[in-house]
Structures are given as structure tokens and as C-alpha cells.
């Protein structure tokens, strides 16, 4: 029932007007948030779960009937709903680019149309957060990032699925226990200022904590004064418990003030006191830009806690993925479809398509190639391609010495799941492996290079033909 009304009113109409027509829909986006170089695709698992459970119960049907706009025949169709679509999709964690089909849904129009709202809701949200997490973890380099955003997320679903997406995008853990339980991802955390304030002294608070949690002893040192109270008290507690096995699990967290200045001073104090292994975690409205700045200024940081700016993707909070009809099929005959717009960016790319990733001799990806579905995996050397960016279609290229990979496995075949779902941590690993095959120039946070998404000449021909026909 999480569906825009028009999916259902169209479904009601398709059943009467075009009952035997098959539709092909592509999911894609036109712009990477934050003017970034790539998006990390996420949310497929929740689409799979949704599709596997797609049904209308008596209460749903009674509600829809009460709206007074649906034919009984349509309500009967929903009652006996049996999903029979095919779905192809990028795997979760994949670096993906503008104007390429991330998913393609093929099936009875009435069914394929119905999936639009939920697919976009799920994929747009999780890909947005995974992409933000990728930017933040990229800025953090090899230092771990903990996701701390549940309290600032836009509601419970955003907290839970946002935590999942953050881990896909590279976060090492989440503070959100429900997300840990739901998705089997690591949970972690430190303590709040309330813990410190509860005790007569900061020292008492630290000491009690260290005895309680000798294996996870990160003390929050900024309640009163980081350098004159917090760090000295932490050191005193560490000294007292030295030799009791806590040395490798100790650290401090700084949650306010000038990160660069305070961490440099704190690092020196900890080192001078004989605790070079004590880690320094920082938090406080962090994002990729603050992290990059403080690290380049020499801040002494071992880990980051990142909340509101990650879980809300604050700097650019929408991924505008769309779901567009690209072809219909009747009696085995596929007819490409196009939507024309004054804005070239909003003109759709017609046809049932495949997506190939092209790699050079070193295994580095240099372009994605869209072809019509019946074109074979490209092997001819050299290969002629055309730029798919609607503003750059005049740019053509000839590529040589490449290998091509079909990067969209089939997920559903005739309504049955044919894809083995990886765990979230497996997805995170896959994402890192795929990112290692992307150029640094595309991955950087500021002014990245634009990755090539190309069309095969046949696909370009179909697009040009449909445009010309419709413009007559
Ligand atoms: N050395 C630094 N360089 C760049 N940005 C920093 C540095 N230190 C802190 N920041 C960032 O600047 C922003 C403001 O930090 P500041 O501690 O002044 O904030 P605040 O919210 O006023 O803190 P407080 O919790 O003390 O009220 C935060 O996003 C913080 O992460
Ligand atoms: O700043 P974020 O990236 O969202 O990270 C999470 C924040 O949540 C906690 O703050 P809390 O809710 O206790 O309030 P605070 O902002 O006053 O520290 C924590 O101390 C961080 O500051
Ligand atoms: O565990 C922490 O330190 C934590 C958790 C949520 C938000 N801020 C901090």
C-alpha cells in the first residue's frame, strides 16, 4: 500500500485498456548529489523483501474499495495478486553513474507500474545515504567512522535503513541497536555527557566506567575542560588500571571545540603519560569537508563519530532517481518508447538495455556502455561509442584494449527470486573492491572528474529515430 495513488489508478486502467501489454521500466538518476563523482547503489534488498511479500489483504482491499474509484475486476486482480515480473539490477554497493539504468523491471504493465513508488523510495534513500557515507569514509581514509545519527534521522525508518546504507558506504559500525539487530551490522559507542555529570567528579565517572567496560573504555573528555580536566582525569584512571589489561582498549572522545588544536595537545599528553595506544575519537557535526580539513591540518584523530550530516545527507538531501517506461512488448515484439522534454536531461533513453562496464588492461573501469538488450557483450576492438550525457551526445570515442562485464545480474525471473542476497558486510566489502577499480579522479570529494557513460551506436540510432518521429 506504500504506493502513489496513480500507480493504482493506472493499474485499474491498464487492466481494461491494455491487459496483454508488457512494460519495461528503467530506474536511473540524472545528477550525483553534492556534485560528486559517483553514487553507491543501495536498497535492493528492501525491494526484494517488498516484492517477495507483495499482496493485498482484506483490509487493504476494503480501503481501496471505499475510495470508490476502482473496478471490481481490478480489486479481484489485486486480491489474487501473483507477481510475475523480471528484474535486473546493479548489486548493492556498486559505484554507479548518472543516466544509466540501475534497475530494469519487465512485466505486465499493471504490476511493473505498481512497483514505482516503493522502488524509488527505497533506492533513492539508501543510495543517497550510502553515497554520503562513501564521501565521509573516503575523507577519513583508513580511520574508522561510526554512524551516530539515529537521534537526528527523519524518523525510525530513516535511522534504521540509513544505518544500513551508512555501513554499505563504508561506516564501520552504527550506534543504532535496532539496525544492528535487523541487519547484523556491528554496533559501537562511547558515553554521553549525562554519565559524567551524574557523578560528583569527572574522575569518579571515568573510573566507574573503566571498571565496568575495561575492553571498551573511550572516555568523553569535554564536559568541563578538555585539556585541564578531561584528559588529565582520563590519564589518571588509565594509570591506576594499568597492568589490568585495559591498555589496548582505552581512548578519549572529544565532542566540541577546535578539533585540530585539542587533538594535537591531547595526543601529546597521552603519549607523554605512556599511553601511545590510547585512541582519540572526535564527533560534533562532522562531514567530509570538516574531516578532510582537520586531517590535512594535522589533527591527531583515530576514529570519527558522525551523526546528523550523514544520516540526513544534509548538504544535498535528495537523490532524484526516476522510474521511466522505456519499452512495451506485445506478442514478443519489443517497441522502444521515449518521453520528450524541452530539457534534454529529461528526455528518456528508449529501449530494453544492457549495461556493461569497460575495464582497461590494469582492470580499472573507464566507462559504462549502454546497449540494446540483444546486442552481444562487446568484444570488438576497437569499439565505437557515443557519450550518453544528454549535453554531450556529440562526443564520440573509439576504445581499444578493453574488457567488458555485464554488471546487472537478474534478480527476479518470472516473479521468482533468482539472486542470492549478500549480507550487509559482504556488500560493504564488494563496494570497496569495486571502488578500488575506479580512478581517484572520479572518487575525490571536490570537483571530481566525470566518468563516461556511453551509448552503443545502435542505441543512439534508436534514440535519434524516436526523437525525429516524435518531433515531426
Ligand atoms: N579545527 C577545525 N577545523 C575545521 N572545522 C572544525 C575544527 N574544529 C571543529 N570544527 C567543526 O566546526 C563546527 C563547529 O565547531 P564548534 O566546536 O565551534 O561547534 P559548537 O557546535 O559551537 O560546539 P559546542 O559543542 O562547543 O557548542 C563543527 O562542525 C566542528 O566539527
Ligand atoms: O553531531 P553529530 O554528527 O550529529 O554526532 C552525534 C552527536 O550526538 C551527540 O550529541 P548530543 O545529542 O548529546 O548533543 P550535542 O550536540 O549537544 O553534543 C554526540 O555527542 C554528537 O555530538
Ligand atoms: O556512543 C556515542 O558516543 C554516541 C552515540 C550517539 C550519538 N552520539 C554519540
From TrEMBL:
It is an enzyme of class 6 (ligase). Residues 145-348 form the Nicotinate/nicotinamide phosphoribosyltransferase domain. Keywords: Glycosyltransferase, Ligase, Phosphoprotein, Pyridine nucleotide biosynthesis, Transferase. GO terms for cellular component: cytosol. GO terms for biological process: NAD+ biosynthetic process via the salvage pathway. Its EC number is 6.3.4.21. Transiently phosphorylated on a His residue during the reaction cycle. Phosphorylation strongly increases the affinity for substrates and increases the rate of nicotinate D-ribonucleotide production. Dephosphorylation regenerates the low-affinity form of the enzyme, leading to product release. It catalyses: 5-phospho-alpha-D-ribose 1-diphosphate + nicotinate + ATP + H2O = nicotinate beta-D-ribonucleotide + ADP + phosphate + diphosphate. Residues 1-124 form the Nicotinate phosphoribosyltransferase N-terminal domain. GO terms for molecular function: nicotinamide phosphoribosyltransferase activity; nicotinate phosphoribosyltransferase activity. It comes from the Bacteria. InterPro entries: Aldolase_TIM, N/Namide_PRibTrfase, NAPRTase_C, NAPRTase_N, Nic_PRibTrfase-Fam, Nic_PRibTrfase_pncB, Nicotinate_pribotase-like_C. Pathway: Cofactor biosynthesis; NAD(+) biosynthesis; nicotinate D-ribonucleotide from nicotinate: step 1/1. The keyword Ligase applies. Residues 353-461 form the Nicotinate phosphoribosyltransferase C-terminal domain. The keyword Cytoplasm does not apply. SUPFAM superfamilies: Nicotinate/Quinolinate PRTase C-terminal domain-like, Nicotinate/Quinolinate PRTase N-terminal domain-like. Pfam families: NAPRTase (PF04095), NAPRTase_C (PF17956), NAPRTase_N (PF17767). Belongs to the NAPRTase family. Catalyzes the first step in the biosynthesis of NAD from nicotinic acid, the ATP-dependent synthesis of beta-nicotinate D-ribonucleotide from nicotinate and 5-phospho-D-ribose 1-phosphate. This is Nicotinate phosphoribosyltransferase. It comes from Lactobacillus selangorensis.
